[in-house]
Design brief:
By secondary structure, this protein is mainly α. The protein has a single domain, classed as Non-ribosomal Peptide Synthetase Peptidyl Carrier Protein, Chain A, CATH 1.10.1200. 61% of the residues lie in helices and 0% in strands. Helix 1 packs across helix 2 and helix 1 crosses helix 4. The longest helix is centred in the last third of the chain and has 19 residues. The protein is globular, with a radius of gyration of 12 Å. The two termini are 13 Å apart.
Length: 88
């Protein structure tokens, strides 16, 4: 399984591509709304992207608590761990 740093880089690159952001501006403590100017439509796009990466369905209510880039990394890490358990 990937470590936190690898997951962060993957999330950062995805966000930079999806939302046309400068990767340098995306840090673990960057707030999605306040710092990166993402809105609810962007959140849906991000959920779809994460679902494609993990093959796991993400419930919208699970994503409501996500406020920072690190929160996104944590959700991705949890989903990937669940996926690995299912494959065993």
């Amino acid at each position: 399984m990937k470590n936190q740093e690898e997951l962060f880089l993957e999330v950062r690159n995805s966000m930079a591509e999806l939302f046309e952001l400068n990767p340098e501006d995306i840090k673990p403590d960057s707030r999605l709304v306040e710092d990166l100017d993402l809105d609810s439509i962007d959140a849906v796009d991000m959920i779809v992207s994460l679902q494609k990466k993990t093959g796991k369905r993400i419930k919208p209510e699970e994503f409501q608590a996500v406020k920072t880039v690190q929160d996104v990394v944590d959700v991705l890490e949890r989903l990937m761990a669940e996926q690995q358990k299912e494959q065993k």
